[in-house]
Specification:
Order of helices and strands: HHEEEEEEEEE
Number of strands: 9
Structural class: mainly beta
Helix content: 10-25%
Oligomer: single chain
Number of helices: 2
Strand content: 35-45%
Largest sheet: 9 strands, antiparallel
CATH architecture of the largest domain: Beta Barrel
Radius of gyration: 30 Å
Shape: elongated
């Protein structure tokens, strides 16, 4: 009986020794020290090749915040410095309920200079137009009619608006708009636009005028970049 007890104590001692030995050299402790990842999203707070991702986590307290993270509707900027959209909360579709937006022209680009640079005086950079009443993304199941007040000399352009993948699309369809371009005279064009909500109160847009006449002008596109602010 004494021999059995002695053998049991020896076995227990060896087991503890081996166990502690494995713990001392174990993977888990070394991994946690070489990859400090408090929110367990695979990105370490200091950036380490021992982590699942070597980039440094800019917020190691939130697993939804890391380099390249998708923006979520959570009241948090989920992206890190260097990511597109960093600094914008709830970027994309979150909370966009539409409203009356006043747009400011950012730039005008004439493909192939089809109007010899004469389109910009119609909508010069920095000029405001609108406000445009935009519907919200929810419930916009079919094209709706809207009016786009560009102001003189373009006037108000009737169009339809629809939504696909979080982008609001505007088009005049086959209807043509007449424009009096300085140095060119009257031209006709159709209008299309893509509007990307960034926040509930801010929107980015590109308005494209597809010029189809006069006959001596090759059909071409004039793009007007603009940003809209909720009024």
């Amino acid at each position: 009986m004494g021999t059995c007890k002695l053998f049991f104590h020896i076995l227990l001692c060896c087991t503890m020794t081996v166990g502690y030995g494995l713990t001392g050299c174990g993977d888990s402790d070394d991994l946690s020290s070489s990859c400090p990842d408090n929110d367990l999203d695979g990105y370490g707070s200091s950036g380490s090749p021992d982590c699942a991702h070597s980039e440094r986590d800019c917020d190691d307290t939130n697993a939804d915040v890391h380099p390249g993270a998708p923006e979520l509707c959570d009241g948090v900027d989920n992206q890190c410095p260097g990511d597109a959209g960093h600094g914008i909360f709830d970027e994309g579709l979150c909370g966009f309920e539409g409203g009356s937006f006043l747009f400011t022209v950012g730039d005008v680009e004439e493909w192939d200079r089809c109007l010899d640079g004469n389109f910009e005086p119609l909508l010069p950079p920095g000029e405001e137009f609108g406000p445009i009443l935009l519907p919200g993304l929810e419930g916009l199941g079919s094209p709706a009619s809207i009016q786009i007040p560009f102001g003189p000399p373009l006037g108000t352009v009737p169009a339809t608006i629809s939504e696909e993948g979080g982008i609001l699309f505007i088009t005049t369809g086959s209807e043509e708009t007449e424009l009096n371009v300085p140095g060119i005279g009257m031209v006709t064009a159709t209008l299309t636009a893509g509007l990307q909500p960034v926040t509930a109160s801010w929107i980015q847009a590109i308005f494209t005028f597809h010029v189809t006449s006069p006959p001596d002008v090759m059909p071409c596109d004039v793009r007007v970049g603009a940003t809209g602010e909720l009024q």
